[in-house]
Amino acid sequence: MSDLQEEENAAELKIPTVFLEANSLSNTEAKLVLEHHLESREIRPEEASERVRKTYEYVSQFNIQQNRPNMDALRQKLVSTYPKLHFFEICVLANLAPGDVEEAKILVPSLMGKISEDELTQIVEEVATYR
Questions:
Q1: DSSP letters of 32-90?
Q2: What is the greatest pairwise CA distance in the chain?
Q3: Distance (Å, rounded) from C-alpha 97 to C-alpha 78?
Q4: What distances in angstroms separate CA 25 from CA 6, 56, 68, 112, one per listed residue?
Q5: Taking the complete model, does pTM exceed 0.70, yes or no?
Q6: Handedness of CA 10, 15, 19, 20 (dihedral sign)
Q7: How far is Cα 70 from Cα 41, in angstroms, rounded to an integer?
């Protein structure tokens, strides 16, 4: 295994710095960016390049929050209430919307030890209210 592979571990949020420093997008936000891209070029999704089309189809299919105000409100709530969370973790929680604490722990293992069980319960409930 290479040194790079040994250092990377998403469960511990050990991912390349370029990803940690980037603003993560939820599926809702990615869909809006792609819609703007398509509209500005006057292209229908089915006329776009294969990569854009497939990405658009994916984020549309798995778009849980459905609208920008909900996603903005959820992100703001989680950022202000749980400053220990990384934007990447917030987006994963928003995109996957775990149904309970155990599912959240499995989907986002980097949360373990970072926040309490009660906080994670509150986060899961908060994400559910923005669906």
A1: HHHHHHHHHTT--GGGS-HHHHHHHHHHHHT-SS-SHHHHHHHHHHHHHH-TTS-HHHH
A2: 48
A3: 13
A4: 26, 13, 11, 22
A5: yes
A6: positive
A7: 27
**Residue ranges of the chain with per-residue pLDDT less than 50:** 1-5
> Rounded to an integer, what distance in angstroms lies between the CA atom of residue 111 and that of residue 89?
8
CA dist., res. 52 & res. 105, Å (int): 31
- What are the backbone angles phi and psi of residue 26, rounded to the nearest 5°? -75, 170
Helix (H, G, I), strand (E, B) or coil at 1: coil
Distance, in Å, from the CA atom of 96 to the CA atom of 99, rounded to the nearest integer, reads: 9
Per residue in 45-69, pLDDT (tens digit) is 889 999 999 999 999 998 877 788 8
